[in-house]
């Protein structure tokens, strides 16, 4: 997958993508285990942020600056999702 | 394998950013209660991803790309505290139990949680799949 004769930057980017994959797996463990609903919301928030980082690294590894727009959109959607979850939690207890 | 100064700066920023992101994930898994988990997760994951996006800005070195990267960093820095505040507030109101080593809880006098810890746990269990 790593192209032949890749420079320092591309190699580091691929390596750090692997590190971020480990981080995503750890966060997913918290998402699966809970124990409460807010814990899962926090895990989802962290996952959205980590995905933004992964897209940034992938943009460097593939030399595709266009991917930054995807990163920006994911950041936006992640924020809106987190706010919606927090709103829903508060509304549910108010009922 | 000798790159320019920009290459080494990019690589260094990527390593620092990924290390912070990994620490954030570790904190989410290892910390004892929701609020300590949040303080590990929110700050260091934002800092880590900010470093990675800064690496993108340094690497491509074009006006348009740098502007986009800086905009994304600014957006993350603005929204992460707001999102964390909203989750923490609603979690406290719902009655998520605090860690037993918690020293001070000033909010309890002014705005007590609307459900006790036991009720919140039952609530949490109701959302688990059967078994």
Secondary-structure topology with pairs:
The complex is a heterodimer of chains A (95) and B (131).
Chain A: H1 8-33, H2 37-62, H3 67-94
Chain B: H1 5-30, H2 34-60, H3 63-94, H4 107-110, H5 117-126
Structure in words:
The complex is a heterodimer of chains A (95) and B (131). Chain A is mainly alpha-helical and 95 residues long. Chain A has 3 helices and no strands. Chain A has helices at residues 8-33, 37-62, 67-94. In chain A, α1 packs antiparallel against α2 and α2 (37-62) packs antiparallel against α3 (67-94). The radius of gyration of chain A is 17 Å and the shape is elongated. The N and C termini of chain A lie far apart (53 Å). By secondary structure, chain B is mainly α. Chain B contains 5 helices and no strands. In chain B, α1 packs antiparallel against α2 and α2 runs antiparallel to α3.
Summarize the structure.
Chain A has 95 residues and is mainly α. Helices cover 84% and strands 0% of the residues of chain A. In chain B, helix 1 packs antiparallel against helix 2 (34-60) and helix 2 (34-60) runs antiparallel to helix 3 (63-94).
Structural class of the helices, strands and pairings of chain A? Answer: mainly alpha
How many distinct helices of chain B? 5
* Content-based structural category of chain B: mainly alpha
| Alpha plus pi helix count of chain A | 3
How many β-strands of chain A, per DSSP?
A: 0
Please outline the major beta sheet of chain B: none
Q: Give the proportion of residues in helices of chain B.
A: over 70%
Task: Report the C-alpha radius of gyration of chain B, rounded.
Answer: 20 Å
Task: Please write the string of helix (H) and strand (E) elements of chain B.
Answer: HHHHH
Shape of chain B: elongated
Q: What separation lies between the terminal Cα atoms of chain B?
A: 55 Å
Mean pLDDT of chain A: 88
């Amino acid at each position: 997958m790593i192209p032949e004769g890749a420079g320092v930057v591309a190699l580091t980017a691929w390596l750090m993508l692997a590190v971020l994959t480990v981080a995503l797996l750890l966060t997913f463990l918290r998402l699966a285990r809970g124990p409460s609903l807010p814990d899962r919301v926090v895990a989802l928030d962290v996952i959205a942020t980590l995905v933004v980082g992964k897209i940034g690294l992938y943009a460097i590894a593939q030399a595709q600056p266009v991917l930054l727009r995807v990163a920006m959109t994911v950041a936006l959607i992640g924020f809106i999702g987190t706010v919606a979850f927090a709103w829903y939690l508060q509304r549910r207890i108010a009922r | 394998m000798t790159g320019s100064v920009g290459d080494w700066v990019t690589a260094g920023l990527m390593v620092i950013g990924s290390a912070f992101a990994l620490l954030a994930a570790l904190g989410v898994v290892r910390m004892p209660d929701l609020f300590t988990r949040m303080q590990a997760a929110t700050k260091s994951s934002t800092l880590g991803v900010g470093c990675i996006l800064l690496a993108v800005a340094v690497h491509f070195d074009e006006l348009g790309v740098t502007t986009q990267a800086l905009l994304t960093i600014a957006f993350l820095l603005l929204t992460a505290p707001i999102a964390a505040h909203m989750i923490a507030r609603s979690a406290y109101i719902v009655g998520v139990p605090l860690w037993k080593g918690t020293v001070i809880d000033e909010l309890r006098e002014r705005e007590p949680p609307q459900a006790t810890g036991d009720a919140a746990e039952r609530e949490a269990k109701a959302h688990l799949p059967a078994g």
